[in-house]
Amino acid sequence: MEFINIIDYIGTFAFAISGIRLAAAKNFDWFGAYVVGFVTAVGGGTLRDLMLDLTPFWMEHVSYLVITGLALVFVIIFRKHVVRLDNTFFIFDAVGIALFTVVGVEKSIAAGFPMWVNVIMGTITGAAGGMLRDIFINEVPLIFRKEIYAMACLAGGIVYYICIWTGLSTVAAQVVAALSVIVIRVLSVHFRISLPALKSIDRNAGESEPVTGGGEKRHGTDS
Which residues contact 1 (CB under 8 A, 6 or more apart)? Predict the structure, then answer.
């Protein structure tokens, strides 16, 4: 088994747990929790493979269904620790997006696409599963909030290529790239670093009284 396959399976297990953990917190039944976990684990990779014109990976290997089942059993057995502790979700989610970013980059490279596509595919693989997870449990996806989430995946893909260009081996580049995603996520949450938010403009605040002569002043934001 190649190192990238090990990363893929560990990422699947971690990401499935992140989905099942949130489903359990919302009192989903076992089947519903399994579905959320599975979609979380394979959602990003499925979107990636469809965009690369490949057969979705989980349709060729039943192991991903089994790993999700093992993740469900893990959450059931250790429910008290996994569900009640808030930081467990963050840990498994951070590990999942980090490993899947590397898997996405490698899968795109193997398909023969250029560097910029590979970085984007890594970002999609890492972030899209979490987006689907949040939609399934009726939450605003993390990717659309102010947190550094997809940007961490994007940075991880870039770090991967920097490592390759500096002469590191493929395995070393994969490890460094994954660690960089985790570090960025941890630091951004710890120090509350976020991207600027686009704030709506209160049109009433800039509204003026009508001027004499039948006309009205236009809002300063109009053009």
Answer: none
> H helices within 137-206, ranges in order?
150-165, 170-190
Amino acid in the structure at residue 51:
M
What SS3 string covers 183-194?
HHHHHHHHCCCE
Tell me the pLDDT tens digit for each residue of 63-93: 999 999 999 999 999 988 887 776 888 999 9
Given phi > 0 = left and psi -120 to 50 = alpha, else beta, which region is 17?
A: alpha
Asked whether the whole model's pTM tops 0.70, one would answer yes
Q: Are 39 and 129 in contact, with CB atoms under 8 Å apart?
A: yes
Q: What are the structure tokens assigned to 208, written together?
A: 């003026």
The predicted-structure confidence for 1-52, as pLDDT tens digits, reads as follows 799 999 999 999 999 999 999 999 899 999 999 999 999 999 999 999 999 9
